[in-house]
UniProtKB/TrEMBL annotation:
Belongs to the short-chain dehydrogenases/reductases (SDR) family. One of its GO terms (molecular function) is carbonyl reductase (NADPH) activity. It comes from the Eukaryota. This is Carbonyl reductase [NADPH] 2 isoform X1.
């Protein structure tokens, strides 16, 4: 059955590239009124040209006060996709305060802040809604030099469960999407090449061959190339089903590049 978001208003963070951009396109095609949030205005301009009629908000979600000003009065939102994330590779012994704070502020703290804004609005309106938190395979299968990023995604997985327990009674459903690195545009950013340079002798994604990694690879978690339509459609479907009756629902997805 074809999904229909007509009459619904969706907010997508990290909308400029990768999964977020693809999700905006998918929701727009399904009839939703979409608010696209990104810190890069040029990405929002090009996205608006591809998806006429969407609203755009240019803000750095790592800045709490700026986010409150930009989204605090955003109006009614029925669907939220928390996709924004930043990644900077550092060996564990070389992790800096700036990178730690920046990564947690964008990848985790902004999820709390934006979700609070949307959830409070849903509760005040007395209507059901849905929130989807986009995680990563590195929450479960980790690699060297990704200590901080992996930690944010592991924390997000737990946060999603807690949010489901607390927001479920208000009919705010939670969904979680877990994707491989290529889905978020990291392939184009050269993450694989940097991995090779910092971990010589190990192929990117080799951790998927270890232990539980093999099972998850068989379930479609191995990074692959592709159009990314399945990723975006999967998130759209999760956003739709998560809003029914509250609770938490997980979604493992095959990673693929999105434009």
């Amino acid at each position: 059955m074809r999904l229909d978001f007509s009459g619904g208003r969706a907010l997508v963070t990290g909308a400029g590239k990768g999964i977020g951009r693809g999700t905006v396109k998918a929701l727009h095609a399904l009839g939703a009124a979409v608010i696209a949030v990104s810190r890069t205005n040029t990405d929002l301009v090009s996205l608006s040209e591809q998806c006429p009629g969407i609203e755009t908000v240019c803000v750095d979600l790592g800045d709490w006060e700026a986010t409150e000003r930009a989204l605090g009065s955003v109006g009614p939102v029925d669907l939220l996709v928390n996709n924004a994330a930043t990644l900077q590779m550092q060996p564990f012994l070389e992790v800096t305060k700036d990178v730690f704070d920046r990564t947690f502020n964008v990848n985790l703290r902004s999820v709390v802040q934006v979700s609070q804004i949307v959830a409070r609005g849903l509760i005040q309106r007395g209507v059901p809604g849905s929130i989807v938190n986009v995680s990563s395979m590195v929450a479960h299968v980790t690699f060297p030099n990704l200590a901080v990023y992996s930690s944010t995604k592991g924390a997000m997985t737990t946060l999603t469960k807690v949010m489901a327990a607390e927001l479920g009674p208000y009919k705010v459903g939670m969904g979680g999407g877990t994707w491989g690195t290529e889905a978020g545009g990291h392939r184009r950013s050269g993450l694989g090449r940097r991995w090779g340079a910092q971990a010589p002798g190990r192929r990117w994604g080799a951790g998927l061959r270890d232990g539980n990694g093999r099972q998850r690879a068989r379930r479609g978690l191995r990074p692959t190339q592709g159009s990314g339509q399945g990723v975006s459609d999967g998130l759209s479907a999760r956003a739709s089903s998560a809003g029914v009756g509250g609770g938490a629902q997980g979604l493992w997805g095959r990673a693929s590049s999105t434009c």
